[in-house]
Amino acid sequence: MAELTGLADDRALLGRTSTAERVSDILRSRIAEGYFPPGTRLSEDSIGGALGVSRNTLREAFRLLTHERLLVHELNRGVFVRVLTVDDVEDIYRTRRLVECAVVRGLGKPPYAVEGLAQSVADGQRAAREGDWKGVSTANIHFHRELVALAGSARTDELMRSVFAELRLAFHVVDDPRRLHKPYLARNREILQTLQAGDRDVAERLLAAYLDDSLKGLVEVYGL
Q1: What is the pTM of this model?
Q2: Could you check whether the bond before residue 111 is cis, i.e. omega within 30 degrees of 0?
Q3: Start-end of H helices in the chain
Q4: Are 200 and 111 in contact (CB under 8 A)?
Q5: 192 Cβ partners below 8 Å, 6+ apart?
Q6: pLDDT of 96
Q7: In what order do the strands lie in the sheet with 41-42?
Q8: Half-sphere exposure of 198 (CA within 13 A, CB side)
Q9: Between the CA of residue 46 and those of 51, 82, 170, what are the distances in Å?
Q10: 144, 97 in Cβ contact below 8 A?
Q11: Which residues 6+ apart lie within 8 Å of 221 measured at CB?
């Protein structure tokens, strides 16, 4: 499998305590990065061999990622990277709107710690200049993770980590990522500048409109 190229290098991340949680972290990252695209069948023998983990450990990692809705088990066929439906995408965005807008609405008095947001905006702009639209997509996800992190809640961070990983499954089947991501470079910067100015109410309105438009655009170009 071409997707396994470099996976053996991740074996070092397991350290001495090779656990299903660490394996699932590695596979989650690989899925989010597109190494295992939606619809890919995951081979226990190949992945287990590349990572140097037991079949039982790998199966537990698969179970964890299935619970996160990143994988699906098909009887007598195996485990596959999940292919999202339009209904899935709409549900993801409902969750995003509930959580992300609530985070901005709940911010206290300015100034806000937006250094992470600013870095994500800069990363996205640099990737766009280089024509790296996968990099733009990654920077965009980082922007929204940093936005959620403003809540200072480990539980919210954990919830949205899974949501954003699932969202990447939809991004990976879009034929024209430039069309999908380019409009939001400027909108990310606008939200950042509004928060830098200390106006959370305007930032929330901008974010709500942003998410509505993003959902509409993704559904329009989403290939099923």
Answers
A1: 0.84
A2: yes
A3: 20-33, 44-51, 55-67, 86-105, 115-129, 133-149, 154-171, 177-181, 183-196, 200-221
A4: no
A5: 114, 117, 118, 121
A6: 97
A7: 41-42, 78-81, 71-74
A8: 4
A9: 9, 19, 25
A10: no
A11: 174, 175, 176, 179, 180
Report how far residue 122's alpha carbon sits from residue 115's, in angstroms, rounded to the nearest whole number: 11
Residue 134, sorted as left (phi over 0), alpha (psi -120 to 50) or beta, turns out to be alpha
Beta bridge partners of 71: 81
Would you state the structure tokens that stand for residue 149, as one six-digit string?
Answer: 């992190």
Percent of the chain clearing pLDDT 90 (strictly above): 72
Q: Which amino acid is located at 17 in the chain? A: T
Count the neighbouring beta carbons within 10 Å of the beta carbon of residue 138.
21
| Residue of 110, 118, 68 whose CA lies nearest to 200 | 110
Which two structure tokens, joined as six digits, stand for 42? 């995951």
Look at 21-30, 101-110, 124-133 and tell me which has the smallest mean pLDDT: 21-30
Structure tokens at 175: 């034929």
CA distance 162 to 149: 14
- Calpha distance 128→125 (Å, rounded): 5
CA 27 distance to own-chain centroid: 13
CA distance 25 to 91: 24
Report residue 204 as tokens: 């929330």
Task: Tell me how many degrees the CA angle 102-117-32 measures, rounded to the nearest 5.
Answer: 85
- Nearest CA to 120 out of 133, 135, 130, 134 is that of 135
Q: Are 44 and 4 in contact (CB under 8 A)?
A: no
What residue has token string 């911010």? 107
As beta bridge partners, residue 2 has none
Mean pLDDT across 172-183: 86
